[in-house]
Amino acid sequence: MAEARSAALNASIEAYDPNAFFDAGFDPNVSVFGNLGFVAANVVLALIIEHGLEIVEKVVEHHPMYYRLLSKMYQELMVGGFTAFISKRIQQWNILSNDNEAMVNASDDMVLYYGLAIALQSMFMSWRLRKHNTQVDKLSIMTSQELRDELTLPGDTKHVVALPPIYQSVIKMKIIRRYFLDAFELPELFSFPKYLRAIQDSEIIQLFDIELFAWILMVGVYVAFFAVCGAVYHIPLAPEHDPTYSEAERILRTRLLVLFMFIFTLGLAMFGLNLYLKRCVHWIVEHASKSEAEDHHLVAALERIAAEEATLQRDETPESAIARMTAIANELSDRPDHSTIWALLQTLGRKCMGRAHKKTDRHLALSKLALPFFSRKLLHVVIKLMLNLNAMYLALVLQSFFTAIRPSIAYASQLWYPGIQIALICALAVNMGYIAPRIVGRMALVNATVRVNSAELKASVEHCAEVLETREKMVAALVAFTNTHLKSLADMEAELKLQDDKGTGFVEIDVLRHAIKRYGFKFSRNKFNTFVRLQFKTKGTTVQYEPFFKVLFSTVDQQELRATQIGDEDLIHTASKVSFAIRDQPDAPQR
């Protein structure tokens, strides 16, 4: 009788799930103190992750593209988190059998890994492109003549040194820039590198978007993968009994081989597409320079551009140039550019029915530039599909790798399995870190040239206008910093003179930018390059710093005068302190 009561009591206690925190202690192995300890550990982990994300957000908040990528990553993590939450509830409620629960867990893991793979791939690509763009931007500030002089051997104006790859990229950009400005009647002030970077950023953001067709493609690719695996060694997709150890090993080796062939085929396709886009850039350069794209022809074309730029009208004010760019941007269509699979199907449908969109006159300006087999929208879709496939394969390998680590450590005979998976991850990393950035960079250059992007053109115009307004903000920040840290602007000038060992009056543009940053105002490289080009004399990658300080002191005086007129005592006091501090310095330039 007592045993029956004990059994009934145990049965009633088992009705309470010890996985619930509220029911802790009903199972001797799941104690209250144990649960509290794990809660504390999870809180610490959550705080570490939250603090890490705050640091990342502070770093990327000044880079709009990185911030948008981070927001996209949050979105994909939320999708993965919700699918994991639903599968966990299914498991707790025993809706499915144990085998089905295992399949649900594996599938929701794949959704999460796919989103993470897309995020990782986009971040890696943008970092690689940014690294290359930084090198190009340092040289693109130079005029065509300065670049030509740097490539000429000392004492020999007829022969040039062999062009390093980075100089080839800069010269090609100079040639395409000149062609683009002439075709769309844009002023010299227009920042083609800024326009190109904006299109690159837009490309990466679009590639990050996981549309409906991408999810369908993921299912289709995985079906094809297992179907091919089954066809190679006649492995049934639904075996009637559990495989033996040798059979399981044969299945794994077959699947790894098939996955390697899938990755290898994708790598070849991406490499071929990269070669085609490289050829497209080559054709554009030949068309723009009206010559071959070999090294000596590139330098000759650069020399012609330098001569042309020397004869251009130089008396156009920044304000009139911005007004002209704004007028051109307003003539362009505001119709958004959708390079998705669905948009491609819509375009094909319109063309089959003879209802294609009419192009504006500005688009017709580049009608003579015919690239063989080039379709902007089709190439966008192909690139997106390739990068999605790369992320899908990476998700498949990562999920399998993290699952296989523990058994492989326990059984040394299984170490070959994660070893091969690491090799596959390295192959996919080559695709995303070497080939993909080149594809995206070249596609952006081709896309930016063959058809003007009205949204990014307007953004570049706004960028120039914003730079003109930045001077006031910069002076205010420098004045506030000098007052707070008991320094003067003359101290800043003295620091720069120390960088000018030969007394040429010029310092590296990046040196001036970092000096301004140390004194309380941060410039992005592109914005600072435009700021320098708008107002100061440059020589190669250097800028004359005395005119910079004359403009700085003049702006301080203007702020002091304006403050006097409006009666702002605080501003008068601040500006006067800076003004007197400048005048007290013996080496301060005359204003």
Automatic annotation (TrEMBL):
It comes from the Eukaryota. Keywords: Membrane, Transmembrane, Transmembrane helix. The chain crosses the membrane at residues 32-53, 111-129, 212-236, 256-277, 385-409, 415-436. This is EF-hand domain-containing protein. It comes from Achlya hypogyna (Oomycete). The lineage of its organism: Eukaryota, Sar, Stramenopiles, Oomycota, Saprolegniomycetes.
